[in-house]
């Protein structure tokens, strides 16, 4: 077992470019843990778990800690500042797992046929110049947070299928990527619909495709923790996954399956608005929250075939070691896996 402080974790990052099925273990009440999150609709299960006391019922006192991008969450997990988080698989996360610091323990957001998913965006300047489809992006620039990020992976898969070449511009934070796209400093990007659709509605950006057409069963985000928690804190980890999975079930049944009708949707929007688009009035935030609806993995089930594809791509690009196996990155003992 390896424990990394923040400095070591940052150095390592820089070196690489069904809920009911989860039994809630008995824990001492109010065990304090910290959960990392982005202010994205797709992180709703963590918000629901807090607001509806699902974590509390599992014996956990959860504090949410918010980040502006995924890579710093991996650093925070490795250094012990955060106990659990949801983020995309990345080259940095894989490298930290290879050092014995991190384990993926479940799945969160997936692309699913028939469910609205991540959009491919182009700037208005690029669109007016003829980039009206992904195939027309040859030679264009594509925004990403950093090399080896999920944005990098998605762009590469678009380019591979279309037989085109893209140049990648690392901009670190989602807000910076949005600003660069709107101003025409980059030509293209891909992102979840609750961000993509409002951008397109502004006229400064255009939607030209769907990631599902290129990665139909893409495991977009995963649930992960420190290797120490995965190995030595099984009860706490199962408790977290139980609370998180109840949030997933509430979200899917309400927002996707419409089990509680429009009233249920509006109540869920109220809950999510406490954490997402908090700088907007509720009436302005609601359409974006609803537009961001994507099905989340019941029971935090994990698509290991998708994760293997991602790992293989990182290896093919020389972003992570060629000898790393998926077992190094994933602890598959906690949830149902799909391959």
TrEMBL record:
Q: Where in the cell is it found?
A: Periplasm
Please provide the record's keywords in A-Z order. Answer: Signal
Pfam families xrefs: NMT1
This protein's record includes keyword Signal:
yes
- Where is the SsuA/THI5-like domain positioned along the sequence? 41-249
- Answer yes or no on keyword Signal: yes
Primary localization class, coarse: periplasm
> Signal peptide span per the entry?
1-28
PROSITE patterns xrefs: TAT
Q: Which domain of life is it from?
A: Bacteria
Q: Which family does it belong to?
A: Belongs to the bacterial solute-binding protein SsuA/TauA family.
PANTHER family noted in UniProt: ALIPHATIC SULFONATES-BINDING PROTEIN-RELATED, TAURINE-BINDING PERIPLASMIC PROTEIN
Q: What is this protein called?
A: ABC transporter substrate-binding protein
Q: Which organism is it from?
A: Parasulfitobacter algicola
